[in-house]
Design brief:
With 139 residues, the chain is of the alpha+beta class. Helix content is 29%, strand content 17%. It has a three-stranded antiparallel β-sheet, covered by helices on one side. A two-stranded antiparallel sheet has the order 1-5. The longest helix has 16 residues. The model has no long low-confidence stretch (mean pLDDT 89).
Length: 139
């Protein structure tokens, strides 16, 4: 993870996890889980119009939270205590940097430890040109 480039965590897509930022008619930017939380936290008057950021989080950003967000995080649930960290992740080599490295970063940042101890890397099926085989629908 040394000498890597900045990671733009937003995308201009119509699907995905919306960025939790709201822009107010008062020219301020507010961050919160939802509009009600933003209004309550900042004691915004009813006349302040809020517009949520239209971008979504990058897929790899959202999926990087998977090892602990699926277990109830940010709450300290019984499932989180029992199953985090996991022991093994099985994945293909093509997404080591995109998914595995990001799960490691997020796990260390938000949980204080890596999300799994071992990573088993599987092979990929390639065509005669060494390219990943794609479904006819994917073209």
């Amino acid at each position: 993870m040394r000498n890597i480039k900045d990671w733009c965590v937003s995308r201009q897509l119509w699907w995905g996890h919306r960025i939790p930022a709201w822009y107010g008619s008062d020219n301020n930017i507010y961050v919160g889980r939802n509009e009600a939380e933003v209004r309550a936290r900042h004691r915004l008057a009813a006349g302040v119009t809020l517009r949520q950021d239209e971008d979504v989080l990058d897929t790899w950003f959202s999926s990087a939270l998977w090892p602990f967000s699926t277990l109830g995080w940010p709450d300290a649930t019984a499932e989180l205590g029992r199953f985090y960290p996991g022991s093994v992740l099985v994945t293909g080599f093509d997404i080591i940097f995109f998914w595995v490295a990001r799960m490691m970063m997020m796990g260390l940042k938000f949980m204080g430890e890596v999300p799994f101890r071992d990573v088993y890397i599987t092979g990929l099926i390639l065509d005669e040109h060494g390219e990943r085989c794609r479904s006819p629908r994917a073209t």
